[in-house]
Amino acid sequence: MELNNSGSRNSRTSRQSLAEVLQAHEEQLELEQKSKLKKAQTLSQKKIRQQQIQTLKEQSLREILGFFTNQIDVKRFLKNKKKLLSSDDTEESEKYQDEFLNPNEFEEMKHIYEDCNIGDLVIVFPNPDDEDAPAGEVTFLEAEKVFDKFITVITDEVSKSYLKKERDSFLLSFLTLGDYVKPQKKTKKQEDKKQDDKKQNKDHNENQNQQSNNKDGHKEEKQDKERKNENDNHKNLSEDAKLLPHQKDQPSRINSQQSQHTESKTAEETSYEKYQKFMKLYEVQLKQEEEQYQEQRNVAKQVQVEQFSEVKFSQQFYRRWQKQKKQEDIIIDPLKELLKIDLNNIKQFKNVSKQLSKGGYLVKRMNDEVDYDWICQNSPPKDFLTLVRITVINKLSRNAFVHCRQFVSTTGKHIFVVVKSHQQVITRQAQKMKITKQIEMGFADLFSLEPVDNEFRPLRLKSYVRLIDDDLRNILAQEEYGQPEPEFDYLNCQDVENYCLKLYIKVRQWKGKDLKYNVVKKQREVDKILKEVVTDLNIDQSHEKVELIDDIPITDEEWQVYYLYLESILCFGKKIQWAKEQKMKEVIENIAFLYKLVFLKALGDANQIWYAENQSFWREFNGEKQIIFNLWGRLNITPVAPYTEYFKSSGSAGSSLWRKYEINENKHRSEFINMEKIKITNSIVLKHINILKMLQMQYLFAYFPVHDLHQLKGQGELKKQFFEPLKKNGFIIEKESSEGEKYLRDLFKELADEAESTDFDSESLEKESGFNPRVPWFVPIDSIRDYFGEKIALYFDFLSYYAKQLWYMAVISIITQGIMSSSSLELRQTAIIGFSIIIIIWSTFFMEFWKREQVYFSVRFGQQNFEADEAERPAFEGDFIRSVLNDDLNEEFYSPLKRKMKQLLALSISAIIIGCVIGCVIGINILKNTLIEQKLDQTLSNTIPSILQAVSINFFNFIYNKVGQTFNVLENHKILSTYENSLVAKFTIFRFVNNFIQFFITSFLSSYFVQLKLCQVNLEIQNDCFQILSNQMTTIFLTNIISLQIPKLVAPHIKAFITNLLTKKDEKLVEHPFNLIDEEIERQLKLDPYQTNEEVDGSVNDYMELAIQFSYLSLFGLAFPACYILAFVQNVVKLQVDKFNFFNYSRRPFPQGASSIGNWLVIFEMISFLAIFTNAGLIVFTSEIIKENQVQVFSTLLIVFLTLKYIIRFLVPDEPAEALVLNRRHEFVVEKAVKGFQTESNARYLIQKINRQIGGPREVISSEEEN
């Protein structure tokens, strides 16, 4: 029993242990299954994520590809763009649609032209579908090079991954272009073969005639079988095409029977070959669809039930396909098949070549023998030039968010792309570029415009106003608590100046206590206005809480005029405060500018009234037209507001921070003038497209900014006609002026007469720059800078300064020339020595005062910290190596040794040309001596050689211009500035030798070449070098006036006449709202570009001309003092001719910054220094004044002249006191008024960024940052 019990217990325990084991095993299996499920889930989630990432990449790539192939979802793109560039205008206008624009395009353009600006920049492409367009082929490698080097610019604006997508999309789009078909040329062998074939065909036909009828029947049976096979093949292709709609996942596959036969071949096929096979089947289906479409169209025409448009089938097919894309039953997706091509396998594209032009994107439709229209097919591009144009436009639209509009020229030769930037784009780019912007004077330094005494202390703080006795205090207190006097109705005062003029009659009678009582009373009223001004503009006046020490009193007459000033401040101040109480938004946004105008108006009117009542000849002669002055008037400095780096301001005070300008004929105001917009838009374009290289490779025809007819020539009415059709068709929505706008414009009209010239666009630049006989060197530098930019303005400033300095020397030179021509020998010698000293002093003062002038120029226009960009030359070509500086593995490098060898070659060629110059000089002297020996008239014998000398100088200058530019290109400079410096050095050295070799030989080497008789005047005067130099300089200066300035006036007229004569235009243009605008833009293309060559602007030639003239005056002006009056006339004429050409015959140059004239300053300094040696040499060796100890006297004169030059340089500082004062004042104002405001703005921006990064609430991000 015990055994049985123990056995049963053992069996139970074994059963229990087995059950536990089974249970544990099941649990383990469950755990394993769960782990497998988790692994499967994680794997599936990874796959899903990978698929999602791949889908997003494919969608992004597909979107870019759709842009490049002209199959874009415009509505979606514009919707995204509108989110980024949100507009204040929330009103929706009716959709406009015609044969030119669809509703989406119209919606984009609706707000672009509200600023009444026809465009910022114009990019001109050659029309690839024109008859004269060059034909050719483009390989896959060439397409890669075009995108990488010409179209793409690597910057921080676009990520590298996005650029990779754009590159892939461009190359895939390239593969969809039409294949290039080489034109077949008939050779002699081919013609001989054709003749042999004809003979064989004749023999074969004769043999066929001899054959029996049975053989003919057998042959007919074979032909029938061949026809059946062809029909079967065609049916198979059509069946394969029909199978395409049923293959959603794998649309590139064909039916199973065909795949089995071609299985071995497809294993060897590349991805591009598969795509080509798919497209063949796709094209078959297109043909079938087109045939069905044509049949339906013919039936409909016969029945006259349905009307079909004349649009091609391909357009309607793509429109229908785009509508069906979003449906689930997508039939065909060529883009999906295109994305399957492996671009990394470059070998498969070895034999791929596409057509360069004539892809049929534009079709020329002839209406009659003369009239024609260009019709856009709006289909995917089929030639490379069209693809490049579409790519450039879409990169600018997608990446840069600028607006692009295209049109074809009237000749059909070019396609214009007009580029305009939205205001929000300009603002953002200005922040990124960290451009220097001017602060509004009324915001930054308003109280510097109030009247001050001789110690620069404000009159409102003087003891006369602030410290009053008990009697006056009691009178004021009684008036304050008593019954108030009836107040003058300032709000309804329309003519404040006339009111103050009448008031001045009464004020002049006030003396002593009466005057002080009225001034103190009026000051207290004005203080209430000023208190609100201080609050509105957040002005710190803590420095005024001190007592004035040694306060010097002023006259009663000054206090009387100051009272008029206070009355004007009170009148306009109450008007502004009333508008502020009415919450007029427009007035509040311009409140700082308004107060600046009020201060200037009040001070100007008060002084004018005083001068009108106290006018005298002596005051007119001395220019004493003011009795009270502001801070700038006491310093004799034009008031200039400070500049600082631009940042986006906010709030009511921020709206008045930056200076605003009048930008069009409708009196609209903006923080950015049109010149700045062009500068910023150009930087945007250059950051996305390598325009310079595209111009060099002729993918572009031209690239230039657009002239503004209103600002340049005052043709506002003509410009308004451009925009009338746009208003009629809804492109510009005219808004009724609000009460605030009307009130603001009324205030501007009252305050405009004392404003700065650039505050209001009252006169055109052409009218403002008109010739002033009293000041013939006058140039409105501020207006020229606001239109052309700082670099052109600095050139005109230098030319004006040069002409002004010549005026003083012209007066002295006439007196000296008279003494040298008619006086005794001793007086003549004294005049020569004295005038040489004057030349040294003048040339030194000329350079020293110009240094001061350009420093003041840089301060006035915020160019102190300007640095020119080191742009790379588009024509530079080198070998790719690793950069030692930054480890760039693909840096282009050109050997300096090769460049030196080419420079040596250029030097040797230049030496040969200089040898020819010397030969001409000797030949002309031999001719002169021959004419003298033949006893020809003395005038002719000296004039003819001088004219020949001037002609030879211009001839060799022309020759070396071509040679020098050629060698400069061969030197292959990488940086544009080094290229320009090298070109300037070549031109300067050669022209210096070419112009002055004759003068140096005649002046200093005539004694070594006695046989040449270089200084022979006639048979009687055998040695008068001064007379020879005088004759030569007279002829050269007169010929320069004729040969350099007159062609600049005549040549543009002749060129325009010939161009219009040879150009064939489409006279009957299709009516469209942009017709007038397009005609004006096309007219500006015909203007001459302001360029020396394709890479250097025209300032090189202009400064070179002035440098050569300065050399004549400084080096050899002693021989002919009257040359200074000729130079003055020449420069005045040049100034007027340059203005005329810039305003009428030149394209608008790209505005560029500048703080100095650059290397030209060094060249002028060298000429001024060399003048010491030539003037000393002329006195000692040429004038025959010194006949003994010439070397010792020459050395002594050098020491005297050098000492005199460096004493002047020591006494005249490089920086004028005005510039130092302005700099210090600007630093103080920026630190006080702007830095705190900027810090607050930056802090707000950083907080928003932090909230975005840590996933903070969306509400924290303000609307200002979103905009």
Mind explaining what this structure looks like?
- Helices cover 62% and strands 5% of the residues.
- The strands form seven sheets. It has a four-stranded antiparallel beta sheet with strand order 6-7-1-14, sandwiched between helices.
- The protein is mainly alpha-helical and 1267 residues long.
Could you write a compact summary of the structure shown?
With 1267 residues, the protein is mainly alpha-helical.
What's the layout of helices and strands?
Elements: H1 2-68, H2 74-84, H3 103-109, E1 121-126, E2 137-139, H4 140-151, H5 160-175, H6 188-210, H7 213-243, H8 256-261, H9 263-266, H10 271-303, H11 313-324, H12 334-339, E3 353-355, E4 362-366, E5 372-376, H13 384-398, E6 403-408, E7 414-420, H14 423-433, E8 436-438, H15 441-444, E9 451-452, H16 463-466, H17 470-481, H18 496-507, H19 512-537, H20 556-581, H21 585-589, H22 591-613, H23 617-622, E10 629-630, H24 631-635, E11 643-645, H25 651-654, E12 661-662, E13 669-670, H26 674-688, H27 691-696, E14 702-705, H28 709-713, H29 716-728, H30 739-751, H31 765-768, H32 781-788, H33 790-822, H34 825-860, E15 879-881, E16 891-893, H35 896-933, H36 938-970, H37 976-1004, H38 1025-1062, H39 1075-1085, H40 1099-1116, H41 1123-1144, H42 1159-1182, H43 1190-1211, H44 1217-1253, H45 1263-1266
Antiparallel strand pairs: 1-7, 1-14, 2-3, 4-5, 6-7, 8-11, 9-10, 12-13, 15-16
Helix pairs in contact: 1-5, 2-3, 4-5, 7-10, 14-26, 18-20, 18-22, 19-20, 20-22, 32-33, 33-34, 33-41, 34-42, 34-43, 34-44, 35-36, 35-37, 36-37, 36-38, 37-40, 37-42, 38-41, 40-42, 42-43
